Predict the structure.
Amino acid sequence: MAKKNESKPKESAKVAADTAANEQNTTAAVENTAAENQEPATESDNSVTQEVKNAAAAVPNDSVTQEVKNEAAAVPVTTQEVKNEAAAVPVTVVVLLTSPGNDALMLRHCLRSLAKNLCGVNATVKVVGKVKPSWLDAESFIECSDTTNRRVALAVEQAETERIVLMTDRMHLIRPVLLTDIAVLKADEKPTDTTKMLDEVLPGKKFYNFDVQMPVMLLRSLLKPILEYAEKELKPGFDIPTVFFNLLYQGFLPIIVNWSSDGWVLPVVSSNPDQKKVEKFLETKKFIYFFESAEGERIVSTMKFLTPDPTEFEADVKNANPVED
């Protein structure tokens, strides 16, 4: 039985209202820009395999696909409405283990951030990596020493939910986050190896980079045919979210991120960042991302400050504090 994380909003009604207001603003921005910037279909669209189109058409309108196309359903404005609206939303969270050093401390605090701040979902969390950390609950781990994309595919194959949240252990949630925060399309316009691959296969289209250091939400029923297409047409090593969203949402304009001014992610590059600046940005951000260069005492202190409380995923904590019958 997969480990469950039945998270609930833990902030006051004021915080919930603030979160809802942010949801409405970002949702409106996506819907307006999508409507204004939708491009007419061209012959190059036919380059995308028929399997992808058929899979998209086969999903009923009242499913999660319709929710994602709308970018968000009605956003609750009180704490109780948040609980009532989304308490039963099932989702599988796939966490890629990329930083096994220091007994996977980065992963430990990533999971703590999920337990603390992922709200309104019934989440099954799966960690995918080469070697299971000594402290991690065995039920939550999928062993795979293959490529990153194969690890994702393996985790998705084992998932029992339509919604898949994909992230790495370097992505942490630093305030209450709803599923719609993750589902909103966020990207930048910087060319990457993956966007260049797509441009070679589908010339004349505008492609965005969706690898912007934040969790993303994929749809299980559509991911398989898109991966099959990408594996046939693209070179190895492509970024899965970038391929998935560019093929599924051709002609739509995502939110273009700007870490210095928006409220999404704080990228930490230095091992000794300016603490005052970090604290200032943390007041408005939803996510924090620790680059590989961000290691050391100051980073550990920051993680411990943000997520001090152990979770049910930490087997060493459970063994040290057994539950009495």
